[in-house]
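Standup notes
- DV: blocked on the single-chain target, sequence here:
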Amino acid sequence: MNHDNYPNDYIPGILASVKTIALVGASQNAERASWQVMNFLLQRGYHVIPVNPGLAGQTLLDQQVYGALADIPTPIDMVDIFRNSEAAGHVVDEALALKTPPKAIWMQLGVRNDEAAKRAEAKGVKVVMDRCPKIELA
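- DV (later): unblocked, structure below
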């Protein structure tokens, strides 16, 4: 996949096919992009599961917060990564290690890890990098 230029139907196809999104790097600060994107996705009918080890066990926008992807008890369709490019590689590996890997991995604006993307795509997982689902949906 050429991550510099996605086919016209690639991103809309992902967003139409996923229902449950794990948002890694969720923040309780309403000024942060991760909070705003989570709120937007919830308003659009997605089931968004916040992941943040510092907030694990709490609720965020009425959703249970988990400390790690492996702690989430239900299958995830997409992992949305709000971490830096280096940390994204570890998150991708966590996602690929799940009993049921996600259909897609999404790295937010400014986040790109080509090696992690290759690992995910080799397992049949679609990858989007340096994009925001809120912007794409709007």
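- Follow-up: The first helix runs from residue 10 to 17.
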